[in-house]
Amino acid sequence: xxxxxxxxxxxxxxxxxxxxxxxxxxxxxxxxxxxxxxxxxxxxxxxxxxxxxxxxxxxxxxxxxxxxxxxxxxxxxxxxxxxxxxxxxxxxxxxxxxxxxxxxxxxxxxxxxxxxxxxxxxxxxxxxxxxxxxxxxxxxxxxxxxxxxxxxxxxxxxxxxxxxxxxxxxxxxxxxxxxxxxxxxxxxxxxxxxxxxxxxxxxxxxxx
Length: 208
Ligand code: SF4
Ligand code: SF4
Fold this sequence. Notes:
With 208 residues, this protein is α+β, with helices and mostly antiparallel strands. The protein folds into 2 domains: 31-142, Alpha-Beta Plaits (2-Layer Sandwich); 154-196. The chain has 5 helices and 5 strands; from the N terminus they run αβαββαββαα. It has helices at 7-21, 56-60, 105-109, 135-142, 159-207; strands at 43-46, 66-75, 85-96, 115-118, 132-133. The strands form 2 sheets. Strands 2-3-5 form a 3-stranded antiparallel β-sheet. Strands 1-4 form a two-stranded antiparallel sheet. The chain is elongated, with a radius of gyration of 33 Å. The protein starts with 6 loop residues before the first helix and ends with a helix. The model has no long low-confidence stretch (mean pLDDT 91). One iron/sulfur cluster binds next to helix 2. [4Fe-4S] cluster 1 binds at residues 51, 54, 57, 110. Residues 42-71, 91-120 form the 4Fe-4S ferredoxin-type domain. It is a peripheral membrane protein. NDH-1 is composed of 14 different subunits. Subunits NuoA, H, J, K, L, M, N constitute the membrane sector of the complex. Keywords: 4Fe-4S, Cell membrane, Iron, Iron-sulfur, Membrane, Metal-binding, NAD, Quinone, Repeat, Translocase, Ubiquinone.
């Protein structure tokens, strides 16, 4: 059947009328900040303390835009007769956001929870070299990472938190013990010094 003349125009006008009556979805950025979902992929933050320099993120990054330098340090044996250990020390950690495609693979593969998404996105630069964020800048992004959702009250305590709590309790107990030993040593010292002082007073009185 041949098309009715003017039907295309009528359809177009119908779409225009429908759209005109709908609520506008245009964001008035930058005058109004957009409301972003909590899991927005804006920028990557580095929690350096958790990084063991395993290089997994740099190896898996499809864009090769993570740059890591490190050196090895020898850690003395924890107990007498034990063996010395060597550990990696981070010298440089940088991400080139001019190459990054925000796939999130680095964050997924990090076995030590050292990388996180932050929803911050306002870091455009006029010089492309400034888009390589070094470790200090990556650390600063950490403070913009939203807190994880609350755990189910019936859930088991996560093993990382349990391990951290035990380590903190052990350290606190050790510190208390040391403080107690110091107090006792001080008291003994004071008790020894008192008779000596009394003796010297008595000697002085005898001479007089
Ligand atoms: S988000 Fe993807 S592209 Fe960007 S640094 Fe991580 S792995 Fe590389
Ligand atoms: S994968 Fe994680 S722990 Fe390993 S080097 Fe990358 S950030 Fe550090």
